TrEMBL record:
Name of the featured protein: Dymeclin
Record-stated family: Belongs to the dymeclin family.
Record has Lipoprotein as a keyword: yes
Gene: DYM
Key words, A-Z: Lipoprotein, Myristate
Top-rank taxon, per record: Eukaryota
Taxonomic source organism: Canis lupus familiaris
One Pfam match: Dymeclin
Length: 690
């Protein structure tokens, strides 16, 4: 490095890097630093180039690891950076490109070194390298200056106080990224860290007063989605507009942290890396999530989580309670808009979940919005493209729906929002459908995909829970949504019969051979019957609470009424079948009185008239049992107990053990079964009820 442009291949031989990592101490006032920091570097544009950079610099970094206890050159470099940041704000106002450029380069080198130091040594050794004070070779003083804490405070000030201009964009990105690298210590520990340097510096001491300001700034960085300046508008030469070199370096670390904070990618597809329009927004979001999900310190709660849990809308003039620390205000309308637009990334979905679950102010605001379709549609699209998403992204989207459907107002309002031409829904052309009916279609499709492919018991249990939450508020269901509800029940019914048949055949075979162990068909039947009961609960809840609002569901119920015949006398379903059987019998008799062959329009007219005539007291009101109401779980992805070993998010009740990837055979549907059921729809011209 130095005054000329550097290439990756030249780095191991670079005389300035050799001096930095060598055995000679360099004073912080030495002109050497101006020479070292006067370099330009083409930004790597791929993971291959990043790997080449790390391989080229690893020998230099390891040499510094060995020599720094004697030379203190890392501390000198940090002091040079710290002294420059004191004038950074003034330099930005004066458009001092050279000064900002060199300060940026200093931070870039620090971050590269920090990453290697964290990989190569324990936290205790890392702290020693940052507490060097020149006394005698290799000696450390217990009261020496702690440069690591000073560096972190300086980074916080840089992020929160330096105005975001074209010439400061890159250094702002790199300040955020350096903090992400610092927090990557968790990646190198199997156990959850509760007493780490991140707890020591970020949750107490000099960094603590910056908590609310830092969280607010990171949120606004996400909201604003500021794009990097065009080439030539800032101090660093670029090959592309994808962000600086340090962004690429730290994004690799952030990807590792993201894996820690989600399901780890086990059994799921790798997420496609989208082209980032705003590196600053992306890195700020990742840092915000990492900070918010740090475990509590032994003697204090996580202040960053407290800040996220308590911030309010700028239009809320009520005072903050004195018991709430680190409180601040932010524009909820801007936040809502950004969240709606950014749901293609799983980290944005995690932020949405975090805010809905932990911040009651945000949750109340979002549920009161009159344009909830802007938020719900991206979530539904995630579930619709389940085969293209990572499992943790699908689960987050599903848990968000569970949180939303716990609100009766939401469940009512989504049926009043009419959508036109949903282009991403390809199974059927939907020229006009309510948001509520579309939600039902997507959730049912997710269940059927799970039954045919992933076979995750808890996924479909939570999908059915969302439907159960909504069922009492079903209104004007689209005919296709009503058909899919009954079609799903048909699939479950067929599976139930198939398991019964297999159990019977197995029992007969065991009579002739005592050596053959019997499969546990009782367990299979219990599972399938539990899910069938949940479906019956959903149908029953709709009929009991909103029969007159849903003629299409009654129509589909009558068309497939033979499916329910076998469950009328089944001891597990007799109680829940009473209302369904009454509705089928009542409307069937009215249709028989009307004639043999009836058009669809005539059938619907008779159903609407019958719904008015049916005495409401004949339907017994039955609350949906807790077995069907599976609510969201708190801190599901990064709880204190499961930071590194996160399991599938489920309800407390439903979680009876780990997810069984080799699920019972009842969940294995052939593709043919799923496709054939998809095509079984009532005729749109005439129906014969005899």
């Amino acid at each position: 490095m130095g005054s000329n442009s550097s290439r990756i291949g030249d780095l191991p031989k670079n005389e300035y890097l050799k001096k930095l990592s060598g055995t000679e101490s360099v004073s912080e006032n030495d002109p050497f630093w101006n020479q070292l920091l006067s370099f330009s570097f083409p930004a790597p544009t791929s993971s291959t180039e990043l790997k080449l950079l790390e391989e080229a610099t690893i020998s230099v970094c390891r040499s510094l690891v060995i020599n720094n206890p004697r030379t203190g050159n890392l501390g000198a470099l940090i002091k040079v950076f710290l002294s420059r940041t004191k004038e950074l704000k003034l330099s930005a106002e004066c458009q001092n490109h050279i000064f900002i450029w060199q300060t940026h380069n200093a931070l870039f080198i620090i971050c590269c070194l920090l990453k290697v130091f964290i990989c190569e040594m324990s936290e205790e050794e890392l702290q020693l390298h940052f507490t060097y004070e020149e006394k005698s070779p290799g000696s450390y003083s217990s009261d020496s200056e702690d440069l690591l804490e000073e560096l972190l405070c300086c980074l916080m000030q840089l992020i929160t106080d330096i105005p975001l201009l074209d010439i400061t964009y890159e250094i702002s990105v790199e300040a955020v990224s350096t903090m992400v690298v610092f927090l990557s210590c968790q990646l190198f520990h199997k156990e959850v860290l509760r007493q780490s340097i991140s707890h020591k510096y970020l949750m107490r001491g000099r960094c603590l007063p910056y908590t609310s300001k830092l969280v607010k700034t990171l949120l606004y960085n996400f909201i604003r989605q500021e794009k990097p300046p065009p080439p030539g508008a800032h101090v660093l030469s670029q090959q592309s507009d994808g962000g600086g070199l340090l962004y690429g370096l730290a994004s690799g670390v952030a990807t590792g942290l993201w894996t820690v904070f989600t399901l780890g990618g086990v059994g799921s597809k790798a997420a496609a890396t989208p082209e980032l329009s705003s590196p600053l927004a992306n890195q700020s979001l990742l840092l915000l999530l990492v900070l918010a999900n740090l475990t509590d310190a032994a003697d204090a709660p996580n202040p960053y989580r407290q800040a996220i849990m308590s911030f309010k809308n700028t239009q809320d003039s009520s005072p903050f309670p004195s018991s709430i620390p680190h409180a601040f205000q932010i524009n909820f309308n801007s936040l809502y808009t950004a969240l709606c637009e950014q749901q293609t990334s799983d980290q944005a979905t995690l932020l949405l979940y975090t805010l809905l679950h932990q911040n009651s102010n945000v949750r109340t605001y979002m549920l009161a919005r009159t344009d909830m379709e802007n938020l719900v549609l991206p979530i539904l699209e995630i579930l619709y493209h389940v085969e293209e998403r990572n499992s943790h992204h699908v689960y987050m989207a599903l848990i968000i729906l569970l949180i939303l459907t716990e609100d009766d107002g939401f469940n009512r309002s989504i049926h009043e929002v009419i959508l036109k031409n949903i282009t991403w829904y390809s199974e059927r052309v939907l020229t006009e459908i309510s948001l509520g009916s579309l939600l039902i279609l997507v959730v049912i499709r997710t269940i059927q995909y799970n039954m045919t492919r992933t076979r995750d018991k808890y996924l479909h249990t939570n999908c059915l829970a969302a439907l159960a939450n909504m069922s009492a508020q079903f209104r004007s269901l689209h005919q296709y949504a009503a058909q899919r509800i009954i079609s799903l029940f048909s699939l479950l019914s067929k599976k139930h019969n198939k398991v019964l048949e297999q159990a019977t055949q197995s029992l007969r075979g065991s009579l002739s051979s005592n050596d053959v162990p019997l499969p546990d068909y009782a367990q299979d039947l219990n599972v399938i019957e539990e899910v069938i009961r949940m479906m019956l609960e959903i149908i029953n809840s709709c009929l009991t609470n909103s029969l007159h609002h849903n003629p299409n569901l009654v129509y589909a119920l009558l068309y497939k009424r033979d499916l329910f015949e076998q469950f009328r006398t089944h001891p597990s379903f007799q109680d829940i079948m009473q209302n369904i059987d009454l509705v089928i019998t009542f409307f069937s008799s009215r249709l028989l009185q009307a004639g043999a062959e009836l058009s669809v329009e005539r059938v619907l007219e008779i159903i609407k008239q019958g719904a008015v005539a049916l005495p409401k007291d004949r339907l017994k009101v039955r609350p949906v049992k807790e077995a069907a109401l599976v609510h969201h779980v708190g801190s599901m992805f990064v709880s204190e107990q499961a930071l590194l070993r996160v399991t599938v998010p489920t309800s407390t009740r439903a979680r009876k053990g780990p997810v069984n990837t080799a699920s019972p055979s009842i969940w294995v549907l052939s593709d043919a079964e799923g496709v054939s059921e998809e095509n079984q729809t009532p005729s749109e011209h005439s129906i014969c009820y005899e």
